Amino acid sequence: MKGIKKIISLVCIAVLIGSLFVGCGKKSETSTTNQTNQTQETKTPKNLIVWSHLTDKEVAEVDKVAQEWAKKTGNTVKVQADKGDFQAYLQAANSSKAPDIMFGIAHDNLGTFQKAQLLAEVPSDVVDRSKYVPMALDAVSYDGKLFGIPLAMETYALFYNTDKLSAPPATMEDLIAAGQKNGFQYDINNFYFTYAFIAANGGYVFKNNGGALDPNDIGLGNEGAIKGYQMLADFVQKYKFMPATLKGDDAKAAFQKGKTALYISGPWDVQGFKDAGVKFAVAPLPKTNGQPTPSFVGIQAAFVNANSKNQAEAWDLMKYLVENTPMPLLKSGNRIPVLNSELEKDEVKNDSIISAFAEQAKYGTPMPNIPEMAAVWKPAGDNLTLLTSGKSKPDAVAKNIVDQVKQGIAQQQK
């Protein structure tokens, strides 16, 4: 009897052990299946769409780099030039055809997209702030947070005729003296260019509080701004450099024909002067009170659509594009890099014209990227015209600009 009980016990133990192994076998098989499914999901290619407001030639260069990333990752990328206006983008952003990335757009347009909550915040591991020109990061920030990545920068600087001047004027006093002798003209009633003389003395558009622009703190009517307005009035009325009605094209033509030796403009005029055989060079704007004169700076920026369903892949592609497009964009569109490492390359340092614009941009102020900036341009331009024509005085101009900008902002908020 004891033998039979022993046999039964052994059989039960064997069955129990067998069932345990069977259970383990099923668990292992399930785990393997799950891992396989996860691997298959990871390998499922994502289809990303990139829109760009860069030129067709530049878009073609961006596409080459994007396809390199696609080949490395197994995803697909479609890069296309966006010829529509920003309102069209706002409508498309929530559709099935919306781009994952907008690559190459003037940074001061981002305020519209930020207001519409279309900008995804940049992940901390995508941008190393120490590698960028600080001003460029300010241009794509809201309340101290990054909502875009800077790609390139552009600004204006001082063109001078090398047949008439052996060196550029180093100070504002030198500029006035050289202008009296050799001629100086630029688009004086254009706030974009003239902002430099206002900011040089302490004026500003909106106060920057730690990366947040305050539209309630307008600096176009302070003491420094008034000094700038007086200088602008003197350019026309005291020194007779240019007529109050001067347009940008007329100032450009005067420099190209050798009638003037000094002219303020940007990289967009370089090729035309070269083609016309003008002997010229470019230098940063003359210093004011021993300090660099800040110009307005435009940043070409990129951002990820907050509604993109491919956020991880979009940021990975973005990072790859940012790291690998600076030189192609410089060569195809004269886009000045914002990465310090790129600015140190021979392609920049050995080009006296590009390096001059890059040097000026370092001291510049990004055009405000908040929607309230739309209320600034017309009042500023209208009052500058009154100033240079002698119909308004600097202190009146200062007050009127601020009052009219405030009125414009109030209208936006209705």
UniProtKB/TrEMBL annotation:
Its main location: membrane. It is a lipid-anchor. Keywords: Cell membrane, Lipoprotein, Membrane, Signal, Sugar transport, Transport. One of its GO terms (molecular function) is carbohydrate transmembrane transporter activity. One of its GO terms (cellular component) is ATP-binding cassette (ABC) transporter complex, substrate-binding subunit-containing. Signal peptide: none annotated. GO terms for biological process: maltodextrin transmembrane transport; maltose transport. Pfam families: SBP_bac_8. InterPro entries: Maltose/Cyclodextrin-bd (IPR006060), SBP (IPR006059). It is found in: Cell membrane. Belongs to the bacterial solute-binding protein 1 family. This is Maltodextrin-binding protein. It comes from Caloramator quimbayensis.
